[in-house]
Amino acid sequence: MPEPDIALSLQGLTAGYEGPDVLRGISLDVPRGRIVTVVGPNGHGKSTLLRTVSGLVRARSGRVLVGGAEVQALAPHRIAAAGVAHVPQGDLLFPEMTVHENLMMGAYREADAGVIEARLAEVHALLPRLRERHRQLAASLSGGERRMVGIGRGLMAGGAILMLDEPSLGLAPLVIEQIYEVIGRLREQGRTILLVEENPARVAELCDAMHLLDNGEIVWSGPPAELMDRDELLATYLGG
């Protein structure tokens, strides 16, 4: 069988803030058109992993390759230009800007008005609530609507890979279901996604591969269904 087309490859990635390493020797691949999920307890390096890929945290060693090109030494805006769209944990919107203005901020690198309009139409088709709320200030939105704006802004960037950091965090169960329905539609569209989530059950049917991160190291990798059958592993690292 031919080798899969790898959109993102992490090879021996080590990173951290001041003090000890937070990530230690992380290696994983995200094939193009697939959803790969990193799960693990809170505070064990999942968000740091995405922040390192996008250049917000500088890698201490190892490599980050986007489409085969090394990017770990680049500034964040250049990594974004290479095709990495990062939707961070929480809302992090511009609260005094409208929904439309927030979405347009995602397309700041694109100069072609036709491309921007096409992306906006795709976002509105995927997230029709954002069309309804396009003149509304972000500060006045519900938690679920803010999360949708964050995802929409990431899609407006037009990157080759979309990184989502715990999109369900802090939301009511019904809203979580809606958010993951959106991610399911992105899967159907063939989007490439690196997803961080604490609860593997939420994403087991959506993703193609799963990596369990604990204390900055990947302790298990494999098909999602296999992890869901490993009760002892789930109990040890995720509490059940």
Automatic annotation (TrEMBL):
Which is one GO molecular function term here?
ATP binding
Family in the record: Belongs to the ABC transporter superfamily.
Q: What is this protein called?
A: ABC transporter ATP-binding protein
Which PROSITE patterns is this protein grouped with? ABC_TRANSPORTER_1, ABC_TRANSPORTER_2, EAL
Annotated ABC transporter domain residues = 8-240
Give the species this sequence originates from: Paroceanicella profunda
Pfam families in the record = ABC_tran
Name the source's superkingdom: Bacteria
Which intervals hold domain EAL?
Answer: 1-110
| Alphabetical keyword list | Amino-acid transport, ATP-binding, Nucleotide-binding, Transport
Decide whether keyword Zinc is in the record. Answer: no
> Which terms under GO biological process does the entry name?
L-amino acid transport
